Amino acid sequence: MLKLDIPLFEAEETIPDLLARQARVRHDSPYAHFPDRSISYGALHAAAMRWARAFHAAGIRAGDHVATLMPNCADWLPVYYGALGAGAAVVALNARYKRQELAYTLGHSRSRILVTTNDFAEHVDYEPLLRDVLPDFEGQTPFDLRTEAAPDLRAVVMCGDGPAGPFPAAHAFLQRGESVDAADVAAEATLRRIDDTAAIIYTSGTTSNPKGCELSHRALQSCWSTFSNIVDLGADESVWLPMPFFHTGGIGPMTTILARGAALVSQPHFDPDILLELIERHRVNHLYSGFPQLSFPVLEHPRFDRIRFTHVRTMLNVGPAAMQMRAQQLLPENATLLNLFGMTEGSGIVTFTPIDAPLEIRARSSGLPPPHSDVRIVDPDTLATCADGVAGEIQFRGPGAFTRYYRDPDATNATIIEDGWVRTGDRGEIGPDGHLLFLGRIKDILKVGGENVGAVEIEAFLQTIPEIQLAQVIGMPDDRMGEVPIAFVERRPGMEIGQDEIIAACQGQLARWKIPRRILFVSEWPMSATKVQKFRLKELLASGSES
């Protein structure tokens, strides 16, 4: 398979070493902008080292786990870099977790300290959630917690200005580290190597509990050097980063932004009005929105002006070709739309479209692997390599691959196979131009009257209908056909279209057995960090509560 024409990257230092170096050479330059504040490289490094000393005082040593539970905010950054600076690995928990998911991941991850916040209680209030998950916390010594729910957990630290409740506030935790010698922290950090785990990110479970992907310092840097090389990210440029920090699409870009000395722009909760003001104020150069749910509220916003926003050079959006074409038309003429294929197990990027590829290729393909990685298409049953143009399972290997699933050797061995190849569970093929074509999940194939039907094919057509913003197709059991397609559809703002009109639009465009039997309209989607959870749609359909 062809590869991207970008420099071969070799990681040479850990992520906290990157921060220390950039704090020396770009001390006063901004690293992050939020709606309420900005933080420089120097200030971030100083705050991270204060957290590192506090973690050390709390008994954190090289290889221990520190968990975070917060949305994208300025407090998350020094906690993350401080934990790494203390030699720990960060368990970046999904800020949308509810009781069952949080209880499982806190216990399974063996996290010794959890850092959360009360600053955003109007959107998500973590205090009552944690009281529910940790009912035996009350009355215990704040920094020596003992709880059956998470036996390794010793403290829950509350950032923010609101009441901390039974949990110690961040300032009290930080004070405990003031007596720690910085040299002791530095000595612990030197025990960590670039192939050690930097972050554990739990993938969303569908039929089982979430699995914790271990990502090394090397993997995150290797993977995300692809993005910065593709867009030629400059030291004085900025990247809009709405993807959650607990996701590879958040933690990954912030790593390469750090390496390049650039700046990120983010906000705790997605608000297009505030966001457009941030993009214009900081003259953002790269929009790393990732998914249509984040891209189009910006591109179609009345304040997004193609002339005034010519400082935007690129946008990353993953979607079908028709949607990509529409996004490119909405961007300033000088801006380039990009696409990729990625997954948590690949640290976020497996292939990426070249910036100089024709729009048709960038719209319909997922691009090429970087020089340090390999991608192949195999028969999922025999593992025989497929010829170009023949669909099979996408597999990859390289330094961006995850190390293992934490405490799950069976799942690890089923996913990382001989010669380091990683099974993705995704269908694809190599197109005539050598680029990867993504064809959906292998399990996302409907069996309609004996015919194989890819849900992604139906979704791609539905999303060419002007009134449709997003479509997701699942199979519904049928006595005669075995299974028939059902479409969940979100209309574009201010537009109306009904089931009969959508089905009529499919006539003559899709084979008869591919046309959805029912159209169900939604305004909100059941989401993991970034993707629609189709198993939740199936549950809604089965329960009859899909409305």
From TrEMBL:
> What one GO molecular function would you report for this record?
ligase activity
Q: Keyword Transcription, does the record have it?
A: no
Q: What InterPro entries does the record tag this protein with?
A: AMP-bd_C, AMP-bd_C_sf, AMP-binding_CS, AMP-dep_synth/lig_dom, ANL_N_sf
**By its UniProt entry, which Gene3D superfamilies does this protein fall under?**
3.30.300.30, N-terminal domain of ligase-like (3.40.50.12780)
Where in this chain does the record put each AMP-binding enzyme C-terminal domain? Answer: 457-529
Q: Which family does it belong to?
A: Belongs to the ATP-dependent AMP-binding enzyme family.
Write the protein's name: Acyl--CoA ligase
Species name: Sphingomonas colocasiae
- What high-level taxonomic lineage is stated for the organism? Bacteria, Pseudomonadati, Pseudomonadota, Alphaproteobacteria, Sphingomonadales
